[in-house]
TrEMBL record:
This protein's encoding gene: yhdG_1
Lineage of origin: Bacteria, Pseudomonadati, Pseudomonadota, Alphaproteobacteria, Caulobacterales
GO cellular component: membrane
Record keywords, A-Z: Membrane, Transmembrane, Transmembrane helix, Transport
Designated name of the protein: Putative amino acid permease YhdG
Subcellular location: Membrane
TM region(s), chain numbering: 71-90, 97-117, 137-156, 177-198, 223-245, 266-292, 298-319, 331-351, 357-373
InterPro entries: AA/rel_permease1 (IPR002293)
Membrane topology field: Multi-pass membrane protein
GO MF annotation list: amino acid transmembrane transporter activity
Major location (coarse): membrane
Length: 388
């Protein structure tokens, strides 16, 4: 319906107004920045393990942040720099490379499953829920895990940020979002089942390279090295997608005057170069200094806020504009909208208190910026045009 850069921010701007859109956009900035940083830290773990397998051991001070006794996670910073360079080449070029790397990544997961499944032991799943189901405000059990594993589903929002550069958004976005959700969820389930079936969770839960570690423990050293190599080569696809998405969210907000408009400047290659480089610098600093679990947890809070707003937008638009042309219609929209909103709230309440506080503080800073600067410099404030 709204094939423009910005994803949930754009929908909120058009449906719920500028103030709510700012909060959503500000939450998306948190989400995308932290997910890029978190994935870069994850990539670093596999890269260090891969190089170690080749006999190259990097100095401990340069592969971990201060939280782990190091100085900076240099590999995480380096890969963000490489991916930023690819993005600056242009959308078409980076998308082609991304497609090739995704094939490598899926092939590596299939190989892992093929090797691990024959060693499957049902007893590794007993007890099936050792910490119970959990509940809101209780940071243990399945609920707490579900709130964290939300981290694995950000890509569906990232797809929508590319709407403006999609040839047939009414067809391609629906296929991309729904199709990738089905394929990815199936992969997540199969890989997780194969991993736990092959080795007890305690053996690999704290590893920076769990799949490679499982194969080593099974005596499959060569396969482990290949899996690590595939991760090193292919994990940057996630960084590529989210750095791309982050820059497009900045682009949408800058066009609306909620951020400095010079950030919306696009290069000759069609890339918002200024905002891409700025984003890369910020996420590189975070990746170099912070641990993976803290980055992922706080990123989830921003995602849940954005997804909650999409559920609200769905309901509001169906009531306010029932006859508007819709190429794709969510079925049972009252139920889908309600479950989306309630589910996101329950997941948020299942996050750690420190994460919830961090999210609130981040948005208080955002509201202050909006009231002091953005609300006075936006397109609406200057009467340039009404909200779409």
């Amino acid at each position: 319906m709204m094939p423009a850069a910005g994803s949930a921010y754009t929908y909120s701007y058009a449906v719920l107004g500028e103030m709510i859109a700012w909060v959503v956009g500000w939450s998306l900035i948190l989400e995308y920045s932290l997910v890029v940083s978190a994935v870069a830290v994850g990539w670093s773990g596999y890269a260090v393990g891969f190089l170690s397998g080749l006999g190259v051991d990097l100095p401990a001070a340069l592969v971990a942040g201060p939280h782990a006794g190091g100085i900076i996670n240099l590999p995480a910073v380096a890969i963000i720099g490489v991916v930023t360079g690819l993005l600056l080449l242009g959308t078409k070029e980076s998308a082609t490379l991304n497609a090739v790397l995704v094939v490598i990544k899926i092939a590596a997961l299939v190989v892992f499953v093929a090797i691990a499944l024959p060693a499957f032991k049902p007893e590794n799943f007993t007890p099936f829920m050792p910490n119970g189901f959990g509940a809101p405000f209780v940071q243990t059990g399945v609920m707490a895990a579900a709130a964290i594993i939300f981290f694995a589903f950000y890509g569906f929002d990232a797809i929508s940020t590319a709407a403006e550069e999609t040839k047939k958004p009414e067809r391609d976005l629906a296929i991309g979002i729904v199709g990738s959700m089905l394929v990815c969820t199936a992969l997540y389930l199969v890989v997780a089942a194969a991993a736990i079936g092959a080795r007890p969770v305690a053996d690999f839960a704290d590893s920076p390279e769990p799949l490679a570690l499982i194969l080593r423990q099974m005596g499959q050293g060569t396969a482990a090295q290949w899996i690590a190599a595939a991760a090193v080569i292919a994990l940057p696809t996630v960084l590529l997608a989210f750095l791309f998405g982050q820059s497009r969210i900045f682009l949408g907000m800058a066009r609306d005057g909620l951020l400095p408009r010079r950030l919306a400047k696009v290069s000759a290659r069609g890339v918002p170069a200024v905002v891409t480089v700025f984003t890369a610098v910020v996420v590189a600093i975070l990746a170099g200094l912070l641990p993976l679990d803290e980055l992922a947890s706080l990123a989830n809070a921003g995602t849940l806020a954005a997804f909650c707003s999409v559920g609200v937008c769905l309901v509001v638009l169906r009531i306010r504009e029932p006859n508007r042309k819709r190429v794709f219609k969510a079925p049972l929209w009252p139920l889908v909208g309600a479950i989306s909103v309630i589910g996101c709230i329950v997941f948020f309440l299942s996050l750690k208190p420190v994460t919830q506080v961090g999210f609130v503080v981040w948005n208080l800073i955002g509201v202050a910026i909006y009231l002091l600067w953005s609300s006075k410099n936006s397109r609406l404030a200057k009467g340039e045009e009404e909200a779409a």
